[in-house]
Design brief:
Elements: E1 2-6, H1 10-22, E2 27-30, H2 41-44, E3 54-58, E4 64-68, H3 70-81, H4 89-119, H5 125-148, H6 158-173, H7 177-180, H8 182-192, H9 195-201
Parallel strand pairs: 1-2
Antiparallel strand pairs: 1-3, 3-4
Helix pairs in contact: 1-3, 1-6, 1-9, 4-5, 4-6, 5-8, 6-8
The structure holds glutathione.
Glutathione is lined by residues 9, 11, 33, 38, 50-53, 69-71, 103, 107.
Length: 205
């Protein structure tokens, strides 16, 4: 049995889209971040940093395999199933670069932009301009890439799944965004039409 610990945020949606795409059966444990459930000892034993998403897999013999962080979850299940990751060395190297853009550039930058432009009690123009500029670098890189090909890697892969939820949430917050990036829009619309993406974006209920 596989349990996904999550909350309706882009990082959580990466994991649920992945599990839906792979058709794996899983149980959803929604953590109440507002109530601080992610900081309780039981959950810190799964995700020592106290963030969602995390996955626990119960293996034969009572062994529990724990994974935390969207990047680890995406890579682990892609490697284990041999799916959602191009197989050739060159294509895989390419896919890894775009996977990591999603995990270590787009995601953290989008979160910091939200923190400084929406959450911060005091608006600091330097921080807002910095993260806006960093987000534009991510969007520009994706736009250039998607002008050349349908997906971020040679085929639909975990690189797309790593980036999609942050683009989807930005498109809702800023309706004009996708008008400025026609290739990201085309890619966003293609992914949005995938039934597994739709199911994953609806987790947890
Ligand atoms: N590097 C992690 C980041 C995960 C993350 O930031 N999760 C957020 C929700 S989107 C969270 O759990 N925040 C709670 C907190 O920071 O206390 C990943 O890629 O999964």
């Amino acid at each position: 049995m596989l349990t996904l610990y999550t909350f309706p945020t882009p990082n959580g949606h990466k994991a649920s889209i992945l599990l839906e795409e792979l058709g794996l059966s899983y149980k959803v444990h929604k953590l109440d971040l507002m109530a601080g459930e992610h900081k309780k000892p039981d959950y810190l034993a799964i995700s020592p940093i106290g963030k969602i998403p995390a996955v626990v897999e119960e293996l034969p013999g009572g062994v529990k395999r724990k994974l935390f962080g969207s990047g680890a979850i995406l890579l682990h299940f892609a490697e284990r199933t041999g799916r959602l990751m191009p197989q050739g060395v060159e294509a895989r190297a390419d896919a890894l670069s775009w996977l990591m853009l999603g995990i270590s550039d787009l995601g953290p930058t989008a979160v910091d932009m939200f923190r400084f432009s929406v959450r911060a009690p005091e608006k600091i123009p330097y921080a807002i301009d910095l993260f806006k500029g960093e987000l534009i670098r991510c969007y520009d890189a994706m736009e250039g890439r998607l002008a050349e090909r349908e997906y971020l890697a040679d085929e639909y892969s975990i690189a797309d799944i790593a980036c999609f939820p942050f683009i989807a949430v930005a498109a809702v917050a800023n309706a004009a965004l996708l008008e400025r990036y026609p290739n990201i829009k085309r890619w966003h619309d293609t992914l949005s039409a995938r039934p597994a993406v739709q199911r994953g974006m609806a987790v947890p209920e």
